[in-house]
Amino acid sequence: MTSWRGRSTRFSNAPLLRAALLGALLACSDNGPTAPTPAEIVSGRDIFRFDTFGDETFWTDTLRMHEVISAAVSPATALSVGLKVDADALPPGLLQSADLNSPATTVALLKLNAVVGLKGTVENINGKDTLTHVGITCALCHSTVNNSVQPGVGQRLDGWPNLDLNSGAIIALSPALSDAQKSVYNSWGPGKYDARYNFDGQNDPAVIPPAYGLEGIHSVTYTGDGDRPAYWNRYVAVTQMHGHGVFSEPRLNINVANPPDQLESKLPDLEAYQLSLTKPAPPPGTFDPAAAARGQAVFNGQGQCATCHTPPLFTDANIRLHPPSEIITDPTHAERSATKMYRTTPLRALWQHAPYFHDGSSATLEDVVNRYDAAKNLQLTDQQKADLVEYLKSL
């Protein structure tokens, strides 16, 4: 399947931008790339939820996580570090009758394919269900559940960042790691992950971002390293999940080949599914519509927000990236990246994924507004700030 999104080009002037828009219109003609079929999107959903790309060779053979889970990870423990359970995969009454403090119950959940983002192979050995292999999928970090059964158990919400997930603490359970490595992983905390630590050794975790609302946005990471989801999917699948495939990034001198390839042919459908994930609407009653309308005027006017968070995508990432000096946040994450720049993060369902900025350094939208007001000397009144927050909640 051919992706229906064109490749990104960075434009420095209006004529080039107009030419690019004309090219995009032509790409939608009868002779241009076609939209994905429903079957391709369903295939991408299954890849997103259940495909490990063969990364069991790392999580099982190297880190021996299957041993840790079998010996010490009960459902109660798993839920405490942010793992989620897909209620739709559970037989009726299972949670009411099962021992949630027993690792054997976790093995049973893995056998049912019910642990979001974990894929286990369970075999009957000497009359006992035994976890022999375990791997991870995209859904581990980029799905959560709606807590309809109990906290941590419910229907899947694909594309939502799992901000409860303490991935570092989970990795640190491995008996194959040194104490120094475990100390770094344990320092990350819930909702954060460092996707470059295994290359440069710096400890600088970032907030797990949403994977919804990406359609039409060419720079899908905080630093805009790649111009479409397939770039980051390839990077994460090969270098972080340790799946079998190839990733090359000359700008960072990264060249990883882990044969045999179990990734490349799946990338188009995976991207199609990710681009089908729309941002969730704010729940009713969570913002004041009248205040939000006033806040929109502040956003587009004195607040100067729309200068970079340009509607309708609420980003200028398709046109430019920004040097760290233009962004009121720590430059380290950009300095470690391929671009050495930051993109303007699209404003997608902000009500859903606090904290804000790549490093989570603003806990609330009020903190974000105050931070920009002070840094840019906007001189917003308290009423303008409050209205602006209501508008941000509505996006």
What does this 3D model show about the protein?
The protein is α+β, with helices and mostly antiparallel strands. The chain has two domains: 42-276, no CATH class; 289-394, Cytochrome c-like domain (Cytochrome Bc1 Complex, Chain D, domain 2), CATH 1.10.760.10. It is 36% helix and 10% strand. It is built from 17 helices and ten strands. The strands form five sheets. A two-stranded parallel sheet has the order 1-5. A two-stranded antiparallel ribbon has the order 2-3. Helix 4 packs across helix 7 (103-111) and helix 12 crosses helix 13. Residues 1-30 have low confidence and may be disordered.
Gist of the model:
The chain has 395 residues and is an alpha+beta fold.
Helix proportion of residues, in percent? 25-40%
The rough form would be described as: globular
What class would the helix/strand composition place it in?
Answer: alpha+beta
Determine the strand fraction and express it as a percent band.
5-15%
Average pLDDT reading: 92
The number of domains is 2
Enumerate the spans where pLDDT stays under 50 for 5 or more consecutive residues.
Answer: 1-30
**Annotation field: number of helices:** 17
Provide key terms for this protein.
alpha+beta, globular, disordered N terminus, 2 domains, 10 strands, 36% helix, two-stranded antiparallel sheet, two-stranded parallel ribbon, 395 residues, Cytochrome Bc1 Complex, Chain D, domain 2
